[in-house]
Amino acid sequence: MLKTLRIAVGFLTVLPVAPKKIEPADLGRSVALFPLVGIIYAVVAWGSLRVSTVVFSEEIASWLTVLLLTVLNGAIHWDGLIDTADGLGGRTPEQTRALMKDSRMGAFGGIALGFLVIGKIMLLKSLINQPLAVFIALFSVSRWAMAFQIYSQPSVSEGLLKCFVIGNRRVGLVIASGLTLLLGLWSFPVGGVLLGLTLLMLLLINPLLRWKFGGITGDILGATNELIELSCLLVLNIESFRF
Which of 8, 34, 43, 63 has a CA positioned 20 to 30 A from the CA of residue 164? Predict the structure, then answer.
């Protein structure tokens, strides 16, 4: 269990905690624990906002927090968002994946990244006075979304995701979902709302992903995480969902 969690943390963050020797089956088992990694992001975001506002304005505190979160994941999710947005310009799954492999950032990718960064900075600052439980729900459901995609969608990846050997997908999804529900109960009903929103969005975008890309890749997982986080932040800014 501890080894599997270390692998999950090492895969989703830049923290050097993963064991040196990792088998493909170990990578596959770590997917079920992705929601737990959200706790690390939640603590970092919550702590950063609280500490930064002692010295800086809310806007600067939010900007610093977004920067810190980006460093924590090595900007891999932003890179995935850029590549996925650029891939949308292709007409066939083969063309979309070819565009995603291009190291140059296209117009779609640049626009998507701009909206994401601006949106996160604007939306995060309104959560400065929210409890840690809300942050845990936010960052756990977005990591659960990646696990959901891995368990439910075909992979067309030619990168690291190809190395994942997934055993019993149903059991893995149940474990990941159970962990997310437990974490969400701490901030009930907000956690339940975010999980429901995430599931609805996944059910809507999955047909698009299969049509445009033929399945999922590591880039698409990163883009999914960012899209879910941004959408949940929008919901958390609705006054009726404030603690």
Answer: 43
How many Cβ atoms are within 10 Å of 10's Cβ, its own excluded?
17
pLDDT tens digits, one per residue of 109-128: 888 889 999 999 999 988 98
- Token duo for residue 194: 């975010």
Q: What single-letter amino acid sits at 35? A: P
Question: Residue 103 corresponds to which tokens in the numbers above?
Answer: 């190291």
Q: Which two tokens stand for residue 100?
A: 């995603």
Q: pLDDT of 155-197, one tens digit each?
A: 787 777 777 778 788 999 999 999 998 988 888 888 888 999 9
Task: Give the position of tokens 């932003």.
Answer: 78
Tokens 């304005």 correspond to 57
**Phi, psi (rounded to 5 degrees) for 99:** -65, -35
pTM: 0.90
Q: How far apart are CA 202 and CA 195, in angstroms?
A: 11
Tokens of 120: 């996160």
Among residues 101, 95, 105, 104, which one has the least CA distance to residue 211? 95
How far apart CA 143 and CA 32 sit, in angstroms, is 10
- Judge contact between 176 and 119, C-beta under 8 A: no
Map out the domains of the chain as residue ranges.
2-237
In whole angstroms, what is the distance from residue 40 CA to residue 224 CA? 19
